[in-house]
Write a structure and sequence with these properties.
Layout (H helix, E strand, L loop, with lengths): L1 H19 L17 E5 L12 E6 L9 E6 L4 E7 L6 E13 L2 E13 L3 E19 L2 E6 L1
Antiparallel strand pairs: 1-2, 1-3, 2-8, 3-4, 4-5, 5-6, 6-7, 7-8
Length: 151
């Protein structure tokens, strides 16, 4: 009787572990992550949250850069990113995108947008995506820039 109870308890434990594990979007990939701890300017007119933009050019953001108006993307660690804009006087509406990323191939990255918030003169409720909004990009290098092309 005790062995039967232990077998059932073990089976339930295994099932709980299988179904409560994080899904594949959080899995570490075996591909090199050259984006980790890097900061980039987004050279297009929109942030990552636009459904219209298909290609994003990213230029490395350095400490010596003195741009006052820009859109940027920071890869904070080996899994999370944030994308945001910064404006000097005149445009006081700021958008920030929070999400996660991982490489699905050596030249392909999947980005998952978790939320988009706005602050300043255009505050609106933060949009939270459940499930996360999935974007897949091919990555290529063009001179000193990274080119992200949406699939």
């Amino acid at each position: 009787m005790v062995n039967k109870f232990l077998s059932i308890a073990l089976a339930i434990f295994v099932l709980i572990q299988l179904f409560s594990c994080k899904d594949d979007r959080s899995k570490k990939s075996s591909f090199p992550n050259y984006l980790k701890n890097t900061q980039w300017f987004i050279e297009s007119e929109v942030l990552l949250h636009s459904d219209e933009e298909q290609v994003y050019l990213l230029s490395r953001r350095t400490d010596s850069a003195t741009r006052f108006n820009f859109q940027a993307m920071d890869f904070l660690d080996d899994e999370t990113f944030t994308s945001y804009d910064s404006w000097e006087c005149g445009n006081d509406c700021f958008t920030t995108v929070y999400g996660r990323y991982f490489f699905t191939d050596t030249d392909q990255v999947e980005m998952q947008v978790d939320s988009i918030g706005q602050s300043g003169t255009c505050p609106s409720p933060t949009r939270i995506f459940k499930p996360s909004k999935k974007l897949v990009f091919d990555i290529s290098k063009e001179n000193t820039q990274l080119k992200l092309t949406r699939q």
